[in-house]
Amino acid sequence: QQLGESVLAIDFTPDNLLRLHFNTPFELARGWARAEQDGGAWQEGALRYCENLDFLPFGRLNGAERLEVQRQCRQQPERWRDNLRQLIAGDPQRWILLDVPVGDGVLAQQALQLADSVFVLLNPDANCQVRLHQQTLPNDCRFLVNHYSSASQLQQDLHQLWLQTLSGLLPVVIHRDEALAEALAVKQ
To answer: Which fold has domain 1-116?
Structure first.
């Protein structure tokens, strides 16, 4: 944003949690999937956060609607590729960030196929370490340690292990910020 480049963040996660980082009220059901379920265009779900930063939440859906979105994605596997090409053609300087759900669901698979670069966030805990080796990871992905606390011996040990075993580990960490966690909790 400081460089004057436009950014669009798209939430591909049905949990619709990325909205919390964009001060979007929980009551607001708006998003690309919500717009499509209501018979509109996916672009109608977009929100302007600030100059050069737009956000496209997933939208709030019930269980049946989520299944319908998955079915539509399976039937039209090229849909998001075409949507992103349309965006890029309209603004070639735009950065497009995709928040992709964990797992091998249809949305995750399709979004990962579209990405030029993939960053996997690692929470330095035993759960993350176990799950890291129980999934297929995208080729040439990069890893970023998130919620790191240097006061935790376990987190220090995991970070050292990852430095030795993950070739794509970025040389920076995002430290745990209790104020951020509290701020996100208040937005619920």
So the answer is: Rossmann fold (3.40.50)
**Angle at which helices 79-90 and 106-114 pack, to 10 degrees?**
40
For residues 95-119, average pLDDT: 86
Paired tokens of 91: 């603004």
Residue 178: C-alpha distances to residues 92, 148, 174 (Å): 37, 11, 12
- Closest by CA to 111, choosing from 32, 22, 6, 164, is 32
Tell me the C-alpha distance between 157 and 99, whole Å. Answer: 28
Q: For residue range 120-178, list pLDDT tens digits in order.
A: 999 999 999 999 888 888 888 999 999 999 899 999 999 999 999 999 999 988 887 66
- What pLDDT, in 10s, does the model give residues 26-64? 889 999 999 999 999 999 999 999 988 999 999 999 999
The domain segmentation of the chain, as residue ranges, is 1-116, 117-188
> In this structure, what DSSP letter does residue 138 have?
P
Measured CA to CA, the distance from residue 139 to residue 146 in angstroms comes to: 21
HSE-CB at 64 with a 13 A cutoff on CA atoms is 0
Residue range 81-102: average pLDDT?
A: 84
Q: Which amino acid is at 66?
A: R
Q: What is the pTM of this model?
A: 0.84
What gap in Å lies between CA 10 and CA 83, rounded to an integer? 12
